[in-house]
Amino acid sequence: MGSFQTPIGMRSSNLLETSCGYLLQELQMIWNEVGQDHFEREKVLLDLEQECLEVYRKKVDAANTSRARLHQELAEAEAEFTHLLLSLDERSLPGRPEKMAGTLKEQLDSITPALREMRLRKEERVNQFRTVQGQIQKISAEIAGQSESEYDDLSSDIMVNENDLSLKKLEEYQTELQRLRNEKNERLMRVEQYIDAVHKLSSILGTDSSMVITKVHPSLNDLCGITKNISNSILAKLNSTVESLDEEKQKRLDKLHHLGKALTNLWNLMDTPYKDRQSFSHVTGLLSLSSAEVSDPGSLTLNIIQQAEAEVRRLDHLKASKMKELFFKKQNELKEICNKSHMEIPLQSETDNLINLINSGEIDHADLLMSMDQQISRAKEEASSRMTIMEKVEKWMLARDEERWLEEYSRDENRYSVSRGAHKNLRRAERARVLVNKIPGTSPSNVGRV
Length: 450
What we know:
mainly alpha; 0% strand; rod-shaped; cytoskeleton
């Protein structure tokens, strides 16, 4: 500013060294030629000085702004680089100078490649986090029983915490992902075990397993072609379904046990031939089996139960018609034993009373036959105990018969005559005499006769 306050000659000489000086000199020549007033000349020179200052000021301001921007960019680059190092848990980056030197542009140029490398690392790490978190979210949704459409709505909301992108944090997510995968595999295994149990039980009971499984959840049916639902509620439903089928299996087995025993009792009661029993051997074969031991397909179907029930009803009806026949058969057997052993025979009135009870259905047929069997058994025991006595009685009666014959033979005056058959009578008389001598109570006179 002070240079413009100097006299025109001195100011002109200072400006001659510059292009502005040449222009000012040319301006003075014009003024001299024109005869420009001194005051006007000073005013123009002051205006020129102000305009020059304004131009310089703008240039300086622009330079200051550019410098400030470079400082800001450098500071932001430094801050971003430091933040990336911290978020990625990196100590340093090879190739990046520890201390910055040179001009601002040189410093900015030196940090830019390192910053670009860190940004690439961050992007790669963020993608890794997003992938792992997405898989965690997906498996968690599957475990929670959410549908694919519900998961798709959530998958777009994956938020990655860019303040912590360390490998340690990534390993934590990967560990969580592995835990969820293991849980998913375990749940899938449990689902398959339940489905396999449903197939086996349905095969035994003769029911449609696919319908049972679809009723629990459509995704469990392979024909639906969708991801299996492995949520807690589905596992609980599967467990309840298997328990229900097990209970139905036990219920049907108990019923067939009851029917099998009834068939066996009826067969034994009516002496049913073996070949007639074969058609229901699969029912009686279950009598010795527990529920856990029954595994043949179709062994506990409703059709088998209905057939067994129908057979029991048929045999019950047949039993009533044959009961009298069986009763009379056993009654005759009892009478025969009593007659042979000279025991008291049941009164006819008792027999008639039992027949009336059979006709009225007031007496259990099995109990009646069991009672008859017991009577026959007691009669046989009594007959066995009397056997020795009966043998002696029979021998005594035979001896008495021979004694009477011997008496008649002794009174025959022609017993020694020579006639046909006389020698046979003589031998019989000798045998009779020996037999009579063995039996006490016989007449000695008869024994001594010839």
